[in-house]
C-alpha cells in the first residue's frame, strides 16, 4: 500500500461520479477516480440510458450518459489540471473502511489499497426487472429499444396517446399508471402484476376504478413485438389473455448499490438509500453521497449533477479553510 493520501476519492463513473470528478478537478483539488469495473458498469443505470430527451443538448448522443461522460474524462486528461486527476480506468471499489487516523482505506477490485481524506460515493441504483418464465432476458430488446421504459420523468412522454401497460403490483406502480394516463391520454391503460397480488391503497384503487385502468394478475408468459424490440405489440399472459400495448413501463422498485455505504456504517433510509444533508454529507464524517444513491431525491441526470457539485464544493470549502487556517496559525 502506498502511503500517499489523496484529497478526494470519487467512487462511481455515471452521471454523479463524472460530475463529482469534474467539479473536484475544476476546484483544483486532487481526485482519485474509480468509475467501476466492467461488472459494475454492466449493472448500472448509466449503461442502459439511450437517448436523453428531457435535457437540452443531449439529442445527438446515442448513449446519453456514457458518451458525454467519456468526452469529459478525455477533456480532463488533456487539460491543465491533468496532474491532479488519478483515473483508475475500468476499476471499481470492493471495500472501504476508516483507519485509526480517520482516513478512508479503499481496496479496489484488483486488490490494491488507496488512502483518501474525503469520499464521494456515487454507485447508483438499478431498476428491478420483471421475471418472465423465470428470466429477465425477455425484456432486454424492448428496454434497449425504449418500448419498455422505467423512468416516468425521463420517458413518460413516450406513451402519448398509446395503449400502455405498467408492470408492477404496488401503490407506486398504480401511481405510474394514473400519472401517465392523466398526462398523456392513453386510450388504454393496463397494470400487469405478473403473478403478484395487487397491493394498492384505498384512495389509489378509487382512481384505478374511476379511470377504468385494468388490473390483470396472471403471470406474463411472453412479450409480443417485432424489429428487435422497436415495435411492442403486447403481452401474452399465462391465463391465455393477450394484452395489446404499444408502450410499457416497469415500476417494480430499485436495487440500491449501498454496499460501500453500509461497510462504513452510514445511515440508510427504510429503502436502503443513503441519508445525507443537502450538501451530500452522510452520517459518516468525510463521506459524501451523490446521485440516485442519495435518499429523498429525484433520480435524474441533472439532479445527480447538482448533488455532485454540492459535495465537491463542500469538500473544497473544508480543504481551503484548513489551508487558510494553517497560514493564520
Ligand atoms: C432506462 C433509463 C433511462 C433513463 N433516462 C433518463 C433520461 O432520459 N434523463 C434523465 O435525466 N435521467 C434518466 N435516467 C435516470 C439516470 O440514469 C440516473 O438518474 C443517473 O444515471 C444517476 O446517476 P448515478 O451516477 O447516481 O448512477 P449511474 O449513472 O447509474 O452510475 C453508477 C456508477 O457507479 C459505478 N459503480 C457501481 N458500483 C461501483 C463500485 N463498487 N465501485 C466503483 N464504481 C461503481 C458504475 O460503474 C456506474 O459508473 C434513466 C434511467 C434509466 C434506467
List SSEs in N-to-C order: EHEHHHEEEEEHEHEHEHEEEEEEHEH
Q: Cα-atom Rg, whole angstroms?
A: 22 Å
* Low-pLDDT stretches: none
CATH superfamily of the largest domain: FAD/NAD(P)-binding domain
**Beta strand %:** 15-25%
> Could you tell me which ligands this complex binds, including any ions or cofactors?
flavin-adenine dinucleotide
Q: Identify the CATH class of the largest domain.
A: Alpha Beta
Number of structurally distinct domains: 2
Biggest sheet layout: 7 strands, mixed
Overall pLDDT: 97
Q: Which term fits the overall shape?
A: elongated
Question: Would you give an account of this structure?
Answer:
Helix 8 (202-210) links the parallel strand 10 (189-192) and strand 11 (214-216). Helix 1 (15-26) runs parallel beside helix 4, helix 1 packs parallel to helix 10 (301-328) and helix 7 packs parallel to helix 8 (202-210). The protein has helices at residues 15-26, 38-42, 45-48, 66-78, 140-144, 152-155, 171-184, 202-210, 259-263, 301-328; strands at residues 5-11, 31-34, 85-87, 93-98, 104-108, 113-121, 125-127, 148-149, 164-167, 189-192, 214-216, 220-226, 231-237, 242-244, 247-250, 254-256, 287-289. The strands form four sheets. Strands 1, 2, 3, 4, 5, 6 and 17 form a seven-stranded mixed β-sheet that branches. Strands 8-15-9-10-11 form a five-stranded parallel β-sheet. It has a three-stranded antiparallel β-sheet with strand order 12-13-14, with no helix packed on it. It is elongated, with a radius of gyration of 22 Å. The chain has ten helices and 17 strands. The longest helix is centred in the last third of the chain and has 28 residues, at 301-328. 30% of the residues lie in helices and 23% in strands. It folds into two domains: 5-126 and 254-328, 3-Layer(bba) Sandwich (FAD/NAD(P)-binding domain); 129-250, FAD/NAD(P)-binding domain (3-Layer(bba) Sandwich), CATH 3.50.50.60. Bound molecules: flavin-adenine dinucleotide.
Amino acid at each position: 500500500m502506498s502511503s500517499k493520501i489523496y484529497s478526494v476519492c470519487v467512487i462511481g463513473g455515471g452521471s454523479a461520479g463524472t460530475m463529482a470528478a469534474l467539479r473536484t478537478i475544476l476546484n483544483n483539488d486532487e481526485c482519485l477516480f474509480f468509475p467501476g469495473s466492467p461488472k459494475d458498469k454492466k449493472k448500472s443505470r448509466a449503461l442502459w440510458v439511450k437517448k436523453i430527451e428531457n435535457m437540452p443538448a443531449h439529442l445527438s448522443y446515442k448513449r446519453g450518459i456514457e458518451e458525454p461522460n467519456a468526452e469529459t474524462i478525455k477533456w480532463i486528461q488533456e487539460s491543465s489540471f491533468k496532474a491532479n486527476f488519478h483515473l483508475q480506468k475500468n476499476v471499481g471499489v470492493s471495500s472501504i473502511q476508516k483507519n485509526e487516523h480517520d482516513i478512508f482505506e479503499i481496496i479496489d477490485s484488483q486488490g490494491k489499497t488507496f488512502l483518501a481524506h474525503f469520499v464521494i460515493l456515487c454507485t447508483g441504483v438499478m431498476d428491478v426487472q420483471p421475471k418472465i418464465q423465470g428470466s429477465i432476458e425477455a425484456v432486454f430488446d424492448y428496454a434497449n429499444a425504449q418500448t419498455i421504459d422505467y423512468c416516468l420523468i425521463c420517458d413518460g412522454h413516450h406513451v402519448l396517446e398509446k395503449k400502455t401497460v405498467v408492470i408492477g403490483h404496488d401503490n407506486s406502480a398504480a401511481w405510474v399508471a394514473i400519472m401517465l394516463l392523466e398526462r398523456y391520454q392513453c386510450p388504454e391503460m393496463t397494470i400487469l402484476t405478473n403473478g403478484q397480488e395487487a397491493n394498492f391503497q384505498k384512495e389509489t384503487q378509487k382512481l384505478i376504478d374511476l379511470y377504468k385502468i385494468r388490473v390483470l394478475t396472471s403471470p406474463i408468459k411472453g412479450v409480443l413485438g417485432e424489429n428487435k424490440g422497436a415495435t411492442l405489440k403486447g403481452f401474452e399472459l399465462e391465463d391465455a389473455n393477450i394484452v395489446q400495448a404499444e408502450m410499457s413501463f416497469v415500476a417494480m422498485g430499485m436495487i440500491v448499490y449501498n454496499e460501500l455505504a453500509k461497510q462504513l456504517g452510514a445511515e440508510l433510509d427504510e429503502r436502503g438509500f443513503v441519508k445525507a444533508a443537502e450538501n451530500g454529507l452522510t452520517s459518516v464524517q468525510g463521506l459524501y453521497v451523490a446521485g440516485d444513491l442519495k435518499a429523498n431525491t429525484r433520480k435524474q441526470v441533472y439532479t445527480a449533477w447538482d448533488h455532485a457539485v454540492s459535495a465537491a464544493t463542500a469538500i473544497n470549502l473544508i480543504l481551503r479553510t484548513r489551508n487558510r487556517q494553517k497560514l493564520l496559525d
